[in-house]
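Review the following:
>
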Amino acid sequence: MLEETVKKILTARVYEAARETPISAATILSKRLNNQILIKREDLQPVYSFKIRGAYNKMAQLTEEQKAKGVIAASAGNHAQGLALAAKLMGVKAVIVMPRITPEIKVQAVRARGAKVILKGDAFAAAAAHAQELIAQHGYTYIPPFDDIDVVAGQGTIGVEILRQHSGRLDAVFVPVGGGGLIAGVAAYIKYLRPEVKVIGVESEDSASFKAALEAGERVVLDQVGVFAEGVAVAQAGEVPFAIAKDLIDEIITVNADEMCAAVKDIFEDTRAVAETSGALSLAGLKKYIQREDAEGETLLCINSGANTNFDRLQHIAERTELGEQREAILAVTIPERPGSFKRFCKAIGKRMVSEFNYRYADPDAAHIFVGVQVKPGGEDRQAVIDKLRDEGYPVVDLTDDEMAKLHIRHLGGGRPKEHFEEEVYRFEFPERPGALMNFLTHLPADWNISLFHYRNHGAAYGRVLVGMQMPSDDRSHVEEYFDAIGYRYWKETHNPAYRLFMA
């Protein structure tokens, strides 16, 4: 299988649509991390993503009869744009079925490249099902985003370019992983020619379907998939990519949202390119690898797979960058509610930069403060701050890794009920479309009361919502049955310490 894949990579037709992208030296990051770090710039493709390679190569294998009937795909992202451009260059009709939650910028980008866009359903599964219905009606040829040998071969040309452009020392190549088409092609070519080079996949920790498949020895379907890095939000690894890559890649590293945001900043500072979160995924994994291995003097390359991000999402990415770099600690600190306490607290912090300070009077004896403090990366300095505050007599809760605190509580500066009442608090991911909130509310029993609600638009396909609900005691034991029927992802936060300290 390896030789067959490499032959297909070497004969792939991609350069009628794609361009050979350069490798940029990340000089600032290299100096900071004591390793030579290189970035393969797939963000410089005509569609700002590597997906044009696989889409065009697959279309180049079609018969004239297939081209005459047209092609179709279900996609909410970069594959849609790649296929639209490939079809336009070949003069072939293209239909792209996209979920209704797809950001308008991506819908317009696909239409601008001549494809017909059909918006269907609230999630990818509904769009994919409708695409199959259209295939049955019109005879379109489906162009898959990753689960196809010709698509894999097209993506594999990135591996060819890497070894041709950089012939010197190369210790490891880091590849973002969604369905696996990119890493299968890159790993096949690099391992065939230079088996000593490590090929390391990087996945978002809440959509790590390839890692789960490797651990199980077979493809598995994840129960839930995170959407922060929507370009790699895949519930199951592709059959063809998994068969090719399972024995070739050295490991899979997973990273969180904060680490991806920090990597977006790193790429910008070295190249002035604004990567999408899935595009910066591989750099986030590279940095984690250096920290874990205590690596120095190595030559490490990562693939910036794309730059298709909404402008209004950058605010949220910027907010999370310092956390991703471990340069900010988010703490809940209790201080006495009396004159001079705030001054004494600031003296305990010392000359450190305070990035955030939220406080509202709530108790005559004790004040709970939500505070952000800049620290040095690595975790030791954060712990030193906590230890110093505790030595000064302050109770401290570390909220740096608390998702609810970072997404919601820091933006809810005060406001408590005057009297105690019971409520259940849940965090949801809502699809960003008109009617999503109404769909949520109509599934709740009529005698439930919304007692807390916080939402911010982050420019993504999904919004993050915090909801407090008052309900009859009889409903509490099976409250999640109602939420399962709605179909939105959710997390119970009633006992979250950030909620208890600042909102209860």
Notes: Residues 326-401 form a domain with the Alpha-Beta Plaits fold (CATH 3.30.70.260). The chain has a mean pLDDT of 88. The first strand starts at residue 23 and ends at 25. The chain is about 40% helix and 20% strand.
